[in-house]
TrEMBL record:
Catalytic reaction annotation: [E2 ubiquitin-conjugating enzyme]-S-ubiquitinyl-L-cysteine + [acceptor protein]-L-cysteine = [E2 ubiquitin-conjugating enzyme]-L-cysteine + [acceptor protein]-S-ubiquitinyl-L-cysteine
Disordered: region residues: 1-20
Annotated ranges, domain Pex N-terminal: 69-240
The protein's name: RING-type E3 ubiquitin transferase (cysteine targeting)
Biological process according to GO: protein import into peroxisome matrix, receptor recycling; protein ubiquitination
Protein backbone atom coordinates (compact mmCIF):
# COMPACT_ATOMS: atom_id res chain seq x y z
CA UNK A 1 0.00 0.00 0.00
CA UNK A 2 1.47 3.36 -0.97
CA UNK A 3 1.46 6.41 1.13
CA UNK A 4 -0.90 8.11 -1.23
CA UNK A 5 -3.68 5.57 -0.75
CA UNK A 6 -6.47 6.67 1.61
CA UNK A 7 -6.83 4.95 4.97
CA UNK A 8 -9.71 2.46 5.29
CA UNK A 9 -12.72 3.70 7.11
CA UNK A 10 -13.17 2.59 10.75
CA UNK A 11 -15.78 -0.08 11.23
CA UNK A 12 -19.05 1.17 12.59
CA UNK A 13 -19.70 0.25 16.29
CA UNK A 14 -21.94 -2.72 16.73
CA UNK A 15 -24.87 -1.91 18.98
CA UNK A 16 -26.96 -4.68 20.66
CA UNK A 17 -30.55 -4.55 19.81
CA UNK A 18 -32.75 -4.10 22.91
CA UNK A 19 -34.66 -7.17 24.05
CA UNK A 20 -38.32 -7.00 23.35
CA UNK A 21 -40.35 -5.96 26.42
CA UNK A 22 -42.74 -8.79 27.35
CA UNK A 23 -46.35 -8.03 27.25
CA UNK A 24 -48.28 -7.66 30.56
CA UNK A 25 -49.85 -11.08 30.06
CA UNK A 26 -46.37 -12.61 29.80
CA UNK A 27 -45.30 -10.94 33.10
CA UNK A 28 -48.31 -12.27 34.95
CA UNK A 29 -47.66 -15.78 33.62
CA UNK A 30 -44.04 -15.62 34.79
CA UNK A 31 -44.99 -14.44 38.27
CA UNK A 32 -47.58 -17.20 38.54
CA UNK A 33 -45.02 -19.79 37.48
CA UNK A 34 -42.51 -18.56 40.06
CA UNK A 35 -45.11 -18.61 42.86
CA UNK A 36 -46.14 -22.10 41.86
CA UNK A 37 -42.54 -23.28 41.88
CA UNK A 38 -41.97 -21.79 45.33
CA UNK A 39 -45.14 -23.35 46.73
CA UNK A 40 -44.22 -26.90 45.71
CA UNK A 41 -43.25 -28.60 49.01
CA UNK A 42 -40.30 -30.86 49.42
CA UNK A 43 -40.96 -34.59 49.56
CA UNK A 44 -42.33 -35.57 53.00
CA UNK A 45 -42.84 -38.77 54.86
CA UNK A 46 -46.15 -40.43 53.88
CA UNK A 47 -46.89 -41.07 57.57
CA UNK A 48 -46.75 -37.34 58.33
CA UNK A 49 -48.88 -36.30 55.36
CA UNK A 50 -52.23 -36.56 57.25
CA UNK A 51 -50.78 -34.51 60.10
CA UNK A 52 -49.47 -31.67 57.92
CA UNK A 53 -52.62 -31.56 55.82
CA UNK A 54 -54.87 -30.69 58.78
CA UNK A 55 -54.94 -27.66 61.08
CA UNK A 56 -53.01 -27.94 64.32
CA UNK A 57 -55.43 -28.85 67.12
CA UNK A 58 -54.00 -29.31 70.64
CA UNK A 59 -54.55 -32.87 71.79
CA UNK A 60 -54.90 -31.76 75.40
CA UNK A 61 -57.74 -29.44 74.36
CA UNK A 62 -59.62 -32.29 72.71
CA UNK A 63 -59.18 -34.53 75.77
CA UNK A 64 -60.23 -31.70 78.09
CA UNK A 65 -63.37 -31.24 76.01
CA UNK A 66 -64.30 -34.90 76.59
CA UNK A 67 -63.69 -34.53 80.32
CA UNK A 68 -65.79 -31.36 80.48
CA UNK A 69 -68.70 -33.08 78.73
CA UNK A 70 -68.47 -36.01 81.17
CA UNK A 71 -68.41 -33.66 84.19
CA UNK A 72 -71.37 -31.72 82.82
CA UNK A 73 -73.40 -34.91 82.47
CA UNK A 74 -72.36 -35.95 85.97
CA UNK A 75 -73.61 -32.67 87.45
CA UNK A 76 -76.93 -32.93 85.61
CA UNK A 77 -77.38 -36.51 86.75
CA UNK A 78 -76.61 -35.62 90.37
CA UNK A 79 -79.17 -32.80 90.36
CA UNK A 80 -81.78 -35.01 88.70
CA UNK A 81 -81.17 -37.78 91.26
CA UNK A 82 -81.50 -35.32 94.15
CA UNK A 83 -84.76 -34.01 92.71
CA UNK A 84 -86.20 -37.50 92.23
CA UNK A 85 -85.16 -38.55 95.74
CA UNK A 86 -87.82 -36.19 97.15
CA UNK A 87 -90.55 -38.47 95.81
CA UNK A 88 -89.43 -41.34 98.09
CA UNK A 89 -89.70 -43.88 95.28
CA UNK A 90 -87.09 -46.57 94.46
CA UNK A 91 -87.48 -46.30 90.70
CA UNK A 92 -84.84 -43.53 90.47
CA UNK A 93 -82.14 -46.01 91.50
CA UNK A 94 -83.73 -48.82 89.49
CA UNK A 95 -83.62 -46.84 86.25
CA UNK A 96 -80.24 -45.21 86.80
CA UNK A 97 -78.84 -46.48 83.47
CA UNK A 98 -81.87 -45.21 81.56
CA UNK A 99 -81.54 -41.76 83.15
CA UNK A 100 -77.85 -41.59 82.25
CA UNK A 101 -78.58 -42.59 78.66
CA UNK A 102 -81.41 -40.07 78.39
CA UNK A 103 -79.19 -37.25 79.64
CA UNK A 104 -76.38 -38.35 77.32
CA UNK A 105 -78.75 -37.94 74.37
CA UNK A 106 -80.64 -34.82 75.46
CA UNK A 107 -77.64 -32.64 76.38
CA UNK A 108 -75.93 -32.81 72.92
CA UNK A 109 -79.26 -32.48 71.11
CA UNK A 110 -80.13 -29.39 73.17
CA UNK A 111 -76.71 -28.00 72.27
CA UNK A 112 -77.55 -28.55 68.60
CA UNK A 113 -80.90 -26.84 69.07
CA UNK A 114 -79.24 -23.83 70.70
CA UNK A 115 -76.79 -23.41 67.85
CA UNK A 116 -73.75 -24.93 69.57
CA UNK A 117 -73.34 -27.67 67.01
CA UNK A 118 -69.95 -28.77 68.34
CA UNK A 119 -70.99 -29.41 71.97
CA UNK A 120 -70.32 -27.59 75.20
CA UNK A 121 -66.92 -29.14 75.93
CA UNK A 122 -65.53 -28.35 72.48
CA UNK A 123 -67.05 -24.86 72.65
CA UNK A 124 -65.21 -24.12 75.89
CA UNK A 125 -61.97 -25.22 74.25
CA UNK A 126 -62.65 -23.10 71.11
CA UNK A 127 -63.04 -26.24 68.98
CA UNK A 128 -65.75 -27.67 66.76
CA UNK A 129 -66.63 -30.67 64.60
CA UNK A 130 -65.89 -30.36 60.87
CA UNK A 131 -69.14 -32.13 59.94
CA UNK A 132 -72.79 -31.49 59.24
CA UNK A 133 -75.37 -31.16 61.98
CA UNK A 134 -77.23 -34.43 61.19
CA UNK A 135 -73.97 -36.36 61.41
CA UNK A 136 -73.16 -34.75 64.78
CA UNK A 137 -76.66 -35.59 66.08
CA UNK A 138 -76.29 -39.21 64.94
CA UNK A 139 -72.93 -39.41 66.70
CA UNK A 140 -74.44 -38.08 69.96
CA UNK A 141 -77.28 -40.60 69.86
CA UNK A 142 -75.01 -43.54 69.06
CA UNK A 143 -72.42 -42.57 71.68
CA UNK A 144 -75.08 -42.67 74.43
CA UNK A 145 -77.48 -45.35 73.20
CA UNK A 146 -75.04 -47.97 71.88
CA UNK A 147 -73.40 -48.79 75.26
CA UNK A 148 -76.83 -48.96 76.93
CA UNK A 149 -78.22 -51.27 74.25
CA UNK A 150 -75.15 -53.50 74.41
CA UNK A 151 -75.34 -53.78 78.22
CA UNK A 152 -79.02 -54.69 78.08
CA UNK A 153 -78.38 -57.25 75.37
CA UNK A 154 -75.53 -58.75 77.38
CA UNK A 155 -77.73 -58.99 80.49
CA UNK A 156 -80.50 -60.69 78.49
CA UNK A 157 -78.03 -63.22 77.05
CA UNK A 158 -76.71 -64.01 80.51
CA UNK A 159 -80.25 -64.48 81.89
CA UNK A 160 -81.17 -66.88 79.10
CA UNK A 161 -78.03 -68.95 79.73
CA UNK A 162 -76.74 -68.74 76.15
CA UNK A 163 -73.12 -69.62 76.84
CA UNK A 164 -71.91 -69.54 73.24
CA UNK A 165 -73.44 -66.14 72.53
CA UNK A 166 -72.11 -64.75 75.82
CA UNK A 167 -68.60 -65.99 74.95
CA UNK A 168 -68.81 -64.35 71.53
CA UNK A 169 -69.93 -61.07 73.10
CA UNK A 170 -67.03 -61.22 75.55
CA UNK A 171 -64.61 -61.60 72.65
CA UNK A 172 -66.30 -58.72 70.87
CA UNK A 173 -65.85 -56.52 73.96
CA UNK A 174 -62.18 -57.47 74.10
CA UNK A 175 -61.77 -56.61 70.42
CA UNK A 176 -63.50 -53.25 70.94
CA UNK A 177 -61.17 -52.49 73.85
CA UNK A 178 -58.14 -53.21 71.66
CA UNK A 179 -59.54 -51.03 68.87
CA UNK A 180 -60.15 -48.20 71.31
CA UNK A 181 -56.58 -48.47 72.59
CA UNK A 182 -55.16 -48.41 69.07
CA UNK A 183 -57.36 -45.43 68.21
CA UNK A 184 -56.13 -43.58 71.30
CA UNK A 185 -52.48 -44.23 70.44
CA UNK A 186 -53.06 -43.05 66.89
CA UNK A 187 -54.83 -39.96 68.23
CA UNK A 188 -51.82 -39.13 70.41
CA UNK A 189 -49.63 -39.36 67.29
CA UNK A 190 -51.79 -37.61 64.71
CA UNK A 191 -54.23 -35.60 66.85
CA UNK A 192 -57.28 -36.86 64.92
CA UNK A 193 -60.27 -38.98 65.99
CA UNK A 194 -60.39 -39.50 69.74
CA UNK A 195 -62.69 -42.54 69.61
CA UNK A 196 -63.40 -45.29 67.09
CA UNK A 197 -66.91 -43.91 66.60
CA UNK A 198 -65.53 -40.54 65.55
CA UNK A 199 -63.21 -42.29 63.06
CA UNK A 200 -66.03 -44.38 61.59
CA UNK A 201 -68.32 -41.35 61.19
CA UNK A 202 -65.53 -39.05 60.02
CA UNK A 203 -65.99 -36.46 62.80
CA UNK A 204 -62.77 -34.45 62.81
CA UNK A 205 -62.14 -31.78 65.43
CA UNK A 206 -60.83 -28.48 64.08
CA UNK A 207 -60.27 -25.01 65.61
CA UNK A 208 -63.42 -22.94 65.84
CA UNK A 209 -61.50 -19.80 64.87
CA UNK A 210 -58.15 -18.96 63.32
CA UNK A 211 -56.97 -17.34 66.55
CA UNK A 212 -56.75 -20.67 68.39
CA UNK A 213 -53.73 -20.71 70.72
CA UNK A 214 -51.78 -23.69 71.95
CA UNK A 215 -51.43 -22.25 75.43
CA UNK A 216 -53.38 -24.11 78.11
CA UNK A 217 -55.55 -22.08 80.49
CA UNK A 218 -55.30 -23.25 84.08
CA UNK A 219 -58.04 -20.97 85.43
CA UNK A 220 -60.58 -23.78 85.53
CA UNK A 221 -58.10 -26.04 87.35
CA UNK A 222 -57.33 -23.30 89.88
CA UNK A 223 -61.02 -22.77 90.63
CA UNK A 224 -61.55 -26.50 91.00
CA UNK A 225 -58.63 -26.84 93.44
CA UNK A 226 -59.79 -23.87 95.52
CA UNK A 227 -63.36 -25.19 95.67
CA UNK A 228 -62.16 -28.67 96.70
CA UNK A 229 -59.99 -27.20 99.47
CA UNK A 230 -62.87 -25.03 100.69
CA UNK A 231 -65.35 -27.93 100.80
CA UNK A 232 -62.84 -30.14 102.63
CA UNK A 233 -62.33 -27.37 105.20
CA UNK A 234 -66.10 -27.06 105.71
CA UNK A 235 -66.43 -30.82 106.18
CA UNK A 236 -63.78 -30.59 108.88
CA UNK A 237 -64.96 -27.39 110.60
CA UNK A 238 -68.76 -27.69 110.62
CA UNK A 239 -68.94 -30.74 112.94
CA UNK A 240 -66.79 -28.84 115.45
CA UNK A 241 -68.96 -25.72 115.37
CA UNK A 242 -71.74 -27.12 117.55
CA UNK A 243 -69.21 -28.18 120.19
CA UNK A 244 -66.89 -25.17 120.08
CA UNK A 245 -69.34 -22.30 119.51
CA UNK A 246 -70.59 -22.07 123.14
CA UNK A 247 -67.04 -22.27 124.48
CA UNK A 248 -65.79 -19.59 122.11
CA UNK A 249 -68.73 -17.37 123.02
CA UNK A 250 -68.00 -17.73 126.74
CA UNK A 251 -64.32 -16.90 126.25
CA UNK A 252 -65.19 -13.80 124.21
CA UNK A 253 -67.72 -12.64 126.79
CA UNK A 254 -65.19 -13.08 129.60
CA UNK A 255 -62.41 -11.08 127.96
CA UNK A 256 -64.68 -8.68 126.05
CA UNK A 257 -67.72 -7.85 128.21
CA UNK A 258 -68.88 -5.30 125.64
CA UNK A 259 -69.90 -8.19 123.41
CA UNK A 260 -72.73 -9.25 125.71
CA UNK A 261 -75.20 -7.68 123.29
CA UNK A 262 -74.60 -10.73 121.03
CA UNK A 263 -76.67 -12.85 123.43
CA UNK A 264 -79.19 -10.16 124.33
CA UNK A 265 -82.14 -11.92 122.68
CA UNK A 266 -81.37 -15.19 124.51
CA UNK A 267 -80.97 -13.35 127.82
CA UNK A 268 -84.19 -11.43 127.25
CA UNK A 269 -86.07 -14.70 126.69
CA UNK A 270 -84.60 -16.51 129.71
CA UNK A 271 -85.13 -13.43 131.87
CA UNK A 272 -88.89 -14.12 131.70
CA UNK A 273 -88.51 -17.37 133.68
CA UNK A 274 -89.83 -17.51 137.23
CA UNK A 275 -87.27 -17.37 139.99
CA UNK A 276 -87.57 -21.05 140.89
CA UNK A 277 -86.91 -22.35 137.34
CA UNK A 278 -83.39 -23.35 136.29
CA UNK A 279 -82.31 -21.48 133.12
CA UNK A 280 -79.79 -24.19 132.17
CA UNK A 281 -82.42 -26.93 132.17
CA UNK A 282 -84.88 -24.83 130.18
CA UNK A 283 -82.27 -23.76 127.61
CA UNK A 284 -81.36 -27.38 126.93
CA UNK A 285 -84.94 -28.61 126.58
CA UNK A 286 -86.40 -29.56 123.15
CA UNK A 287 -89.30 -27.13 123.68
CA UNK A 288 -86.89 -24.19 124.05
CA UNK A 289 -84.95 -25.22 120.94
CA UNK A 290 -88.19 -25.29 118.95
CA UNK A 291 -89.94 -22.16 120.27
CA UNK A 292 -88.08 -20.24 123.01
CA UNK A 293 -90.82 -17.66 123.58
CA UNK A 294 -93.51 -20.30 124.08
CA UNK A 295 -91.26 -22.51 126.21
CA UNK A 296 -90.60 -19.86 128.87
CA UNK A 297 -94.36 -19.35 129.25
CA UNK A 298 -95.51 -22.97 129.10
CA UNK A 299 -96.63 -24.11 132.60
CA UNK A 300 -95.65 -27.72 131.89
CA UNK A 301 -92.12 -26.73 130.94
CA UNK A 302 -91.77 -24.43 133.94
CA UNK A 303 -93.02 -27.11 136.33
CA UNK A 304 -90.82 -29.82 134.78
CA UNK A 305 -87.60 -27.81 135.01
CA UNK A 306 -87.88 -26.36 138.49
CA UNK A 307 -84.53 -26.07 140.23
CA UNK A 308 -83.42 -29.30 141.92
CA UNK A 309 -81.38 -28.60 145.07
CA UNK A 310 -81.62 -24.87 144.30
CA UNK A 311 -78.65 -22.56 144.76
CA UNK A 312 -78.42 -18.79 144.35
CA UNK A 313 -75.82 -17.10 142.15
CA UNK A 314 -73.85 -14.33 143.83
CA UNK A 315 -74.24 -11.37 143.34
CA UNK A 316 -77.25 -11.48 140.96
CA UNK A 317 -79.34 -13.89 143.08
CA UNK A 318 -80.68 -16.03 140.17
CA UNK A 319 -81.63 -19.59 141.09
CA UNK A 320 -80.02 -22.68 139.50
CA UNK A 321 -79.87 -26.39 140.11
CA UNK A 322 -76.81 -27.28 142.13
CA UNK A 323 -75.65 -29.67 139.41
CA UNK A 324 -76.23 -27.12 136.61
CA UNK A 325 -74.30 -24.42 138.48
CA UNK A 326 -71.37 -26.77 139.05
CA UNK A 327 -71.37 -27.76 135.38
CA UNK A 328 -71.31 -24.11 134.30
CA UNK A 329 -68.43 -23.43 136.68
CA UNK A 330 -66.50 -26.48 135.39
CA UNK A 331 -66.97 -25.36 131.81
CA UNK A 332 -65.57 -21.94 132.59
CA UNK A 333 -62.56 -23.47 134.37
CA UNK A 334 -61.92 -25.73 131.35
CA UNK A 335 -62.19 -22.77 129.00
CA UNK A 336 -59.77 -20.80 131.17
CA UNK A 337 -57.25 -23.65 131.14
CA UNK A 338 -57.56 -23.91 127.36
CA UNK A 339 -57.00 -20.19 126.93
CA UNK A 340 -53.97 -20.29 129.23
CA UNK A 341 -52.50 -23.22 127.32
CA UNK A 342 -52.95 -21.36 124.03
CA UNK A 343 -51.21 -18.31 125.48
CA UNK A 344 -48.42 -20.41 127.04
CA UNK A 345 -49.25 -19.21 130.56
CA UNK A 346 -49.06 -21.31 133.66
CA UNK A 347 -51.99 -22.68 135.59
CA UNK A 348 -51.81 -20.32 138.55
CA UNK A 349 -54.68 -19.50 140.85
CA UNK A 350 -57.22 -17.25 139.21
CA UNK A 351 -60.74 -16.36 140.20
CA UNK A 352 -63.09 -17.80 137.59
CA UNK A 353 -66.50 -16.24 136.93
CA UNK A 354 -69.21 -17.63 134.71
CA UNK A 355 -71.95 -15.70 132.98
CA UNK A 356 -75.46 -15.91 134.34
CA UNK A 357 -77.88 -17.15 131.68
CA UNK A 358 -80.76 -15.13 133.08
CA UNK A 359 -79.28 -11.65 133.58
CA UNK A 360 -75.85 -11.83 131.92
CA UNK A 361 -73.90 -10.78 134.98
CA UNK A 362 -70.75 -12.47 136.19
CA UNK A 363 -71.22 -15.11 138.91
CA UNK A 364 -68.34 -15.38 141.37
CA UNK A 365 -69.81 -18.07 143.68
CA UNK A 366 -73.03 -19.85 144.59
CA UNK A 367 -74.89 -20.11 147.88
CA UNK A 368 -77.59 -22.43 149.14
CA UNK A 369 -81.01 -20.99 148.40
Amino acid sequence: MSSNDPLPAAPAPVTAEPAPVPAPATLEAAATAMATAESIPAPIDPLLAPVLATPVVPRVGQLDASLLDAQLLGMFKEQLTDALSLFKTPWAARYDAELSTLLGILVPLLALASGTSHGYGLSLQNLRYAATTPRIAAHAILAAAAPYAWSRLRAWVQRTCRASVDSAMSKAETAWTVISLVTLVRFLVTGRYRTPLERVMGLRVVPASIATQRTISLAFLHRQMLWNAFTEFLLFALPLYRHLAPRIRRILLRYFPALRFLTSSRLATLAQLPIGTCPVCVAGSPAFQTDPTHAVQDPEVLDKYRANMPVCADPCGCVYCYYCAQVKHAEEVADMDTANDDKGEGGGEEKVEWTCMRCGKGVARIERA
